[in-house]
TrEMBL record:
It is an enzyme of class 3 (hydrolase). It comes from Lepidothrix coronata (blue-crowned manakin). Pfam families: Glyco_hydro_47 (PF01532). GO terms for cellular component: endoplasmic reticulum membrane; endoplasmic reticulum quality control compartment. Coiled coil: none annotated. The lineage of its organism: Eukaryota, Metazoa, Chordata, Craniata, Vertebrata. The gene is EDEM1. InterPro entries: 6hp_glycosidase-like_sf, EDEM1/2/3, Glyco_hydro_47, Seven-hairpin_glycosidases. This is alpha-1,2-Mannosidase. Gene3D superfamilies: 1.50.10.10. One of its GO terms (biological process) is endoplasmic reticulum mannose trimming. It comes from the Eukaryota. Residues 1-22 form the signal peptide. SUPFAM superfamilies: Seven-hairpin glycosidases. Ca(2+) binds at residue 531. Belongs to the glycosyl hydrolase 47 family.
């Protein structure tokens, strides 16, 4: 028997009756019925519900495999065990680094030794862009120690940094990596130490004299030459910490690398009362923004800093672009400059108009699931059929602006890939249903989005996701001394490298996901995470500056918002769109979950 309409029965709690629904019609593509085009490629159609069975509006039919797996109770005891497991993961990685690698930058977890810059091969940018011979992993992990409440180790680590770290090194590093990993962590730890409320316990340092702030200032000064002798104001990608910009430096940089410095540079400027750092970072953002396409409003991913010509014309949400959008919003959240929100809102609309494929709504309608693809910045035409793991941050960013429904769908897509491989391949081809670049360097982006979606919805589904991720990391990446990069997500072979963001982000977000009583959630303070996962308090001191008259464009946007007025403009979506009655059901209907699992070749 076929039904031609869906009969909705409303569940009233006071009546204690279960909603009655008629059969849903067999689902067809119906792609022409939706204003957004379908996801390109031969993705499978959503399976029809079996005839004769009614399905609840939210969540799967009784006995459905998704309900059995994800709608189980998540008792406090299990959550506490997983919190402790996440802490244990961090401790094993951190202790292994301190025992076998410190004071070098990173830990080689297979051979239990440290590594620093590759002096023998300056062209080895995969290593040399990140490792500057300044105890990177120790610095990057500082605020994770505080968030986990380990005051004694935090104080010990801070003293080690003060006593042993110097940036007077003949090291050529990427400006972006040094900023987000090192500068950001020094500033975060300084803020934690000097916070009069001490929300994480006593993290004060006896006789502390702003040494971490002075180190941050010294590093930032050494990065400033990257902003000199550039005709556009967009910085060079690399700088030597002793000598400035190398003579053979390239004139090409990526959008994210040049445009994701404003949070850290802005914090430093406002703590020091010196506009220089925020000024150069903001100038770079505005220079990039001015180069967007007149037709689509999109930006490319690689630009010539002298001519302003786009070398890479791909517009996407992954590597080369990701944190540019993230920092437009987070700069607004932290500093209250409305022009940052205006740029973000414009960018987000253009992303929705040109990058988004699939059905209009996440949790209703027909067609392929929503997906954000890589397009030509000038035409909006599809450029390739892959996405990369860095894009998994985007659902978390959508949570911050209140677009929770769309975040739920995109997160489910990345989680399905994780379920298939027990990790996220660096690049995944959604048309071929296979990895294009198969390694996984312990990246945090999926964990970050999982954590933020849980905070927005309080849906236990995301605790199950976090448990899956934690168990996969333990099963596939744990090594003799720490946790190792997966060289191949299918074969599960390992590489001898534990990147510093594993401790600063991956472990932190897992821990916070399961630690409901953490001061981040309970202290009454407002916090924001940088793109490297460093925690920063959102308060008035970062909303006051003494240089409105000299920052570029300030004359048009002097109005600021207060911390309790943060709200993205021009969006009907908000966290309240996820009603309370859905919080203990699946966030995505089971037929749509099954559709996504089929799309990635999981079933």
């Amino acid at each position: 028997m076929r039904w031609r309409s869906v009969v909705l029965g409303l569940l009233l709690a006071r009546l204690g009756l279960q909603a009655l629904l008629a059969l849903l019609p067999a689902l067809a593509r119906g792609l022409g019925l939706h204003p957004r085009p379908p996801c390109p490629g031969p993705g499978p159609a959503a399976p029809a519900l079996p005839a004769g069975r009614a399905a609840p509006l939210w969540g799967p039919a009784r006995g459905d495999e998704y309900e059995r797996r994800y709608s189980r109770a998540f008792p406090p005891q299990l959550r506490a065990r997983l919190r402790d497991a996440a802490r244990g993961m961090f401790v094993f990685g951190y202790d292994s680094y301190m025992e076998h690698a410190f004071p070098r930058d990173e830990l080689d977890p297979l051979h239990c030794r440290g590594r620093g810059p590759d002096r023998g091969d300056p062209s080895n940018l995969n290593i040399n862009d990140v490792l500057g011979n300044y105890s990177l992993t120790l610095i990057d992990a500082l605020d994770t120690l505080a968030v986990m409440g380990n005051s004694s180790e935090f104080q010990k680590a801070v003293k080690l940094v003060i006593d042993t770290v110097s940036f007077d090194k003949d090291s050529t590093v990427q400006v972006f990596e040094a900023t987000i990993r090192v500068l950001g962590s020094l500033l975060s730890a300084h803020i934690i130490i000097t916070d009069s409320k001490q929300p994480f316990g006593d993290m004060t340092i006896k006789d502390y004299d702003n040494e971490l702030l002075h180190l941050a200032h010294d590093l930032a000064v050494r990065l400033l030459p990257a902003f000199e002798n550039t005709k556009t104001g967009i910085p060079y990608p690399r700088v030597n910490l002793k000598k400035g910009v190398p003579a053979d430096s390239h004139n090409e940089t990526c959008t994210a690398g040049a445009g994701s410095l404003l949070v850290e540079f802005g914090i430093l400027s406002r703590l020091l009362g010196d506009s220089t750092f925020e000024w150069v970072a903001r100038r770079a953002v505005k220079a990039l923004w001015s180069l967007r396409s007149n037709n689509t409003g999109l930006l490319g991913n690689v630009v010539n800093i002298q001519t302003g010509h786009w070398v890479g014309k791909q517009s996407g949400l992954g590597a080369g672009s990701d944190s540019f959008y993230e920092y437009l919003l987070k700069s607004y959240i932290l500093f209250g400059e409305k022009e940052d929100l205006e740029m973000f809102n414009d960018a987000y609309r253009n992303i929705q108009n040109h990058l988004r494929r699939g059905r209009e709504a996440c949790n209703e309608g027909e067609g392929d699931p929503p997906l954000y693809v890589n397009v030509n910045m000038y035409t909006g035409q599809l450029m390739n059929t892959w996405i990369d793991s860095l894009q998994a941050f985007f659902p978390g960013l959508q949570v911050l602006i209140g677009d929770v429904e769309d975040a739920i769908c995109l997160h489910a897509f990345y989680y399905a890939i994780w379920k298939r491989y027990g990790a996220l391949p660096e690049r995944y081809n959604w048309q071929l249903q296979a990895p294009d670049v198969p390694f996984y360097p312990l990246r945090p982006e999926l964990v970050e989005s999982t954590y933020l979606l849980y905070q927005a919805t309080k849906n236990p589904f995301y605790l199950h996701v976090g448990m899956d991720i934690l168990q996969s990391l333990e099963k596939y990446t744990k090594a003799k001394c720490g946790y190792a990069t997966l060289h191949h997500v299918v074969e599960k072979t390992k590489e001898d490298r534990m990147e510093s963001f594993f401790l600063s982000e991956t472990c932190k977000y897992l821990y916070l996901l399961f630690d409901e009583e953490n001061p981040v959630h309970k202290s009454g303070n407002k916090f924001m995470f940088t793109t490297e996962g460093h925690i920063v308090s959102v308060d008035e001191r970062f909303r006051n500056s003494l240089w409105e008259d000299i920052l570029p464009g300030e004359e048009d946007s002097a109005e600021k918002t207060k911390p309790n007025e943060l709200k993205a403009a021009n969006f009907s979506s908000n966290c309240n769109r996820v009603p309370d009655e859905r919080r203990y059901l699946l966030p995505l209907k089971s037929n749509y979950m099954r559709q996504i699992d089929q799309m990635v070749g999981l079933i």
